[in-house]
Amino acid sequence: MARAPLLQLSDIALTFGGDPVFSNLDLVVQPGDRVALVGRNGSGKSTLMKVMAGLVEPDSGTRVVTPGIGVGYMEQDPGMEGHATLGDYAASGLDLGDSYRVEMVAEGLKFDPSRAVSVASGGERRRAALAKLLAEAPGLMLLDEPTNHLDIQAIQWLESELSTTRTAFVLISHDRAFLNALTRATLWIDRGQVRRQEKGFVHFEAWRDEIWAEEDVQRHKLDRKIKAEARWAVEGISARRKRNQGRVRALGELRAERSAQIRRQGTAAMALEAGPTSGKRVMEARGISKTYDGKVILAPFDLRVQRGDRIAFVGPNGVGKTTLLKMLIGEIEPDTGTVQMGTNMDLAVFDQNRVQLEHDKTLWENLTGDPAIGVSGKADQVMVRGMPQHVIGYLKSFLFSEAQARAPVRSLSGGEKARLLLARIMARQSNVLVLDEPTNDLDVETLDLLQDLLADYDGTVLLVSHDRDFLDRVADTTVAMEGDGRATVYAGGWTDYQSQRGERVAEAAAVTKKPAAPVSEEKPAAGGLSFTEKHRLEALPAEIARLEAEIAKLEELMMDPDLFTREPVKFQKATDALIARHDLLSTAEEEWLALEEKAAQ
Q1: What is the secondary structure of 421-482 as a DSSP string?
Q2: Rounded to the nearest 5 degrees, what angle is found at the Cα of 403, between the Cα atoms of 402 and 406?
Q3: Is-contact 342 308, C-beta < 8 A?
Q4: Which range among 196-200, 344-348, 437-441, 556-560 has the greatest average pLDDT?
Q5: Do the beta carbons of residue 443 and residue 174 sit within 8 Å?
Q6: Cβ atoms of 114 and 549 closer than 8 Å
Q7: Which among 466, 436, 156, 462 is positioned nearest to 314, based on CA atoms?
Q8: Do residues 5 and 29 make contact, with C-beta atoms less than 8 angstroms apart?
Q9: 76-80, 171-175, 214-218, 533-537: which has the highest mean pLDDT?
Q10: Distance between CA atoms of 349 and 569, rounded to whole angstroms?
């Protein structure tokens, strides 16, 4: 027997500002669906997801949700009024006994539930909104760019959680690896039409290219037919005016059909041009280190950057990747060591916080007001790699309309702001590109183009990103920052780093199994503990206390004698969580005892 769909949209029409976003849209989400929702920036992905969530009312059509099915939507900018902490907000839709779920999810997403809402960053708020959705576990989850503001470890945790859930979900993301791993079907928004393929995102590009090729063939046939009919009209219409009015009308209809076809939006006309060649040695760091408030961000570290290198900096959020990047380019002074800059360097910087953009000014003003590219005395031209160009024409090459050119930057989406910043960077020549999180919010086609441009760029690239696929395609060297001030250089991109790191861990494990070193050899640290082990010993008591508190909450929940008969699913989840927490507690206690014994030696 066929199961009822979770959600059904029928004959949906929606218009914003006089322009139709959707018309005659039909869409069904079935139980167990894992759907990628893809399309260009500005195509209406987030709008469609809000229609699915019931947050945007269409002009016409119906939205039907199967009774008893909850639809959860991850808010991009969640309102947290009335909540003191991020944890209070994330648990606000849960029963009192289920609040432990927020703490479990917070551990994976790396945010502090006790952090006050008033001081939380935008990224922390987004992680709390994602934690709220995962903890509530509705029948259908709508996830709009859930990986933004997550580091790679948190992305991998989320990927693991979603890969094992039975909950259906629809997912918008720019992260190819994330989409490839999770999705089994694809919804593609293209020029107001929504198509569905029962294959995951890994098959999307082949499907898209096939559809576009078919369109090109049909358009070519139509153009040839119009040309032939028009030639007939010119040559033969005067002799047969009365008998062939129908054919004349048919020609008009063909032309109307051709005119009504919506042309595909081209890719942004991005181009990078390296400036004068830098010296062979771009920069060299020797023994640089940094400490903030007693916390070691970077222990003494050496790095040589040669012309043409593509170096990626990876690691958890807050570990110090941007700090290291700024020390290398001279924006921050290291506490120790030196950074020697090469000759003839011309830097272009893409900042993850978009601070170079003035949000209350228009796109036009942001370009012409930049002294590096604005043409002095001409407020309507920018210098594009040495040649003057009208600002509207340049913005159109980055897929902005004339109306957008005169709108304030704050009206743009995240992807559009990233595209505008790329427009500023690419207008000028450079020989060193510093890209801090350039992939956030960019659509797949723009990411593809950016990757190709970086591959052909003659200069040097320093890159921070959490996009594993992008790192693999771009980087030839990876600097991994793994906490406690450690930074290690690996050859290759993300996958190469993971492989080499695994080999190093295995080698280290083999070393620990060797016979103890003679007494005359120097101990790694006072008390027999390494720096990392000492740090771990200090952290374990808090971890053990947290696990004990979670176990107490779960045991209190399961003391309800009617829980099994009243809510068997909740009972099973609580049982599984309790077993898992006992295992983690036992492991943590054994680790603490082993480190205590080692410290006492």
Answers
A1: HHHHHHTS-BSEEEEESTTTT--HHHHHHHHHHHHH-SSEEEEE---HHHHHHH-SEEEEEE
A2: 90
A3: no
A4: 196-200
A5: yes
A6: no
A7: 466
A8: yes
A9: 171-175
A10: 51
CA distance 454 to 31: 41
CA distance 199 to 265: 24
CB proximity list for 579: less than 8 A, separation 6 or greater: none
- Number of residues in the chain: 601
| Alpha-carbon distances, residue 225 vs 218, 230, 258, 338, 448 (angstroms) | 11, 8, 11, 70, 36
Q: What is the pLDDT of residue 526?
A: 45
- Asked if 61 and 11 touch (Cβ cutoff 8 Å), the reply is yes
425 in Cβ contact with 399 (< 8 Å): no
Instruction: Output the six-digit token pair for 529.
Output: 């503990």
* Tokens found for residue 455: 């591959």
Instruction: Inform me whether the pLDDT recorded for 516 exceeds 90.
Output: no
Block residue for tokens 């890969």:
163
- 163-203 confidence digits (pLDDT tens): 999 899 999 998 999 999 999 999 999 877 899 999 999 99
Pairing label, strands 460-464, 310-314? parallel
407 three-class SS: coil
Structure token digits, residue 557: 């929940």
The 8-class DSSP code of residue 527 comes to: G
Residue from 172, 194, 183 nearest 10 by CA: 194
Dist CA 364 CA 477 (whole Å): 37
Tens digits of per-residue pLDDT, 65-101? 999 999 999 877 788 988 999 999 999 988 877 888 8
